[in-house]
């Protein structure tokens, strides 16, 4: 069970720890939401789970009690020290690291090495996404400031089977936005090419201490049977198209691609009923995927 708001306040006082806004330190104080996160993720004994920002260890403890092996990365030195003292000694299935989730999006877990630590030389680096991987899930109450760049890094693969993420409602809406809407952007395309949205849960501010002044949601994402991972160059191009979302695709692409490559994109746009005059936000996810292959 997580700490109550009072218990959390008392523990923070004992640690002499002031919640840091810039690290998104809004700690979960609601047992139902902790249970719901584990239920949505279908956590069972033996699962490998990555957690970003374990904080005071609320989700972490629940995951460990459910029999999961947990890989967690915490940036706050004081919270990392607290967990090292309280959770690590009694939980050999917890791999806790101090660090930045932007440097370690999977908290140091390597799904490829977990299957085989002897990779053929020519499969190092960029080709790792095609290699066999150990299945894993991600369950996290994300620090909101990094949620989109972190998600972008995770979507470069290897991919988890499922992600259950506590997010700012506004970020979640961008991730699942549909074409033709203002919220539809590069991250919507990368995410929806690899994951399907399953029913999640709205989370009131009262479930956290301190209470955030934004709305939160538990986003529940299941990996598609044939997920698509965009190559880095195509991702950069798609991002560029959305950075100038009011501009016609034709003028953006002509400036970024060789003439033959641009002509290929235009031909595909036209075959799908669009044109060089179309804007990035009008183009559906499947067509962006076609551009990449
Ligand atoms: C919203 S709190 C969640 C805490 C805890 N998991 C819970 O649910 O109560 C976010 C946590 O992420 C940590 N954090 C913030 N930025 C981080 C980063 N870049 N890398 C790793 N952890 C980070 C914060 O220190 C904090 O512990």
UniProtKB/TrEMBL annotation:
InterPro entries: KsgA/Erm, rRNA_Ade_diMease-like_C, rRNA_Ade_Mease_Trfase_CS, rRNA_Ade_methylase_Trfase_N, rRNA_adenine_dimethylase, SAM-dependent_MTases_sf. Residues 33-225 form the Ribosomal RNA adenine methylase transferase N-terminal domain. One of its GO terms (cellular component) is cytosol. One of its GO terms (molecular function) is RNA binding. The keyword Flavoprotein does not apply. Its EC number is 2.1.1.182. Belongs to the class I-like SAM-binding methyltransferase superfamily. rRNA adenine N(6)-methyltransferase family. RsmA subfamily. This is Ribosomal RNA small subunit methyltransferase A. It comes from Oleiharenicola lentus.
């Amino acid at each position: 069970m997580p700490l109550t708001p009072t218990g959390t306040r008392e523990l923070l006082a004992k640690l002499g720890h002031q919640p840091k806004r810039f690290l998104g330190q809004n700690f979960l104080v609601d047992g139902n939401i902790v249970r719901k996160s584990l239920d949505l993720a279908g956590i069972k004994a033996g699962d490998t789970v990555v957690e970003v920002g374990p904080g005071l260890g609320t989700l972490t403890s629940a995951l460990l009690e459910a029999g999961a092996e947990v890989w967690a990365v915490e940036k706050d030195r004081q919270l990392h020290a607290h967990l090292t003292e309280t959770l690590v000694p009694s939980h050999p299935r917890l791999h806790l690291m101090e660090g930045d989730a932007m440097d370690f999006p999977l908290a140091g877990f390597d799904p490829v090495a977990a299957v085989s630590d002897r990779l053929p030389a020519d499969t190092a680096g960029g080709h790792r996404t095609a290699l066999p991987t150990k299945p894993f899930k991600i369950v996290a109450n994300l620090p909101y400031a990094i949620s989109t760049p972190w998600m972008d890094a995770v979507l470069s693969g290897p991919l988890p089977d499922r992600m259950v993420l506590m997010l700012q409602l506004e970020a979640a809406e961008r991730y699942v936005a549909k074409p033709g809407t203002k919220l539809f952007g590069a991250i919507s395309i990368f995410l929806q090419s690899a994951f399907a949205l399953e029913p999640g849960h709205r989370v009131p501010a009262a479930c956290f201490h301190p209470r955030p002044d934004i709305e939160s949601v538990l986003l529940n994402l299941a990996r598609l049977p044939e997920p698509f991972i965009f190559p880095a160059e195509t991702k950069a191009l798609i991002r560029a198209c959305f950075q100038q979302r009011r501009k016609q695709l034709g003028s953006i692409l002509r400036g970024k691609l060789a003439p033959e490559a641009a002509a290929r994109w235009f031909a595909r746009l036209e075959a799908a009923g669009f044109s060089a005059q179309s804007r990035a936000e009008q183009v559906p996810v499947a067509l962006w995927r076609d551009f990449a292959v």
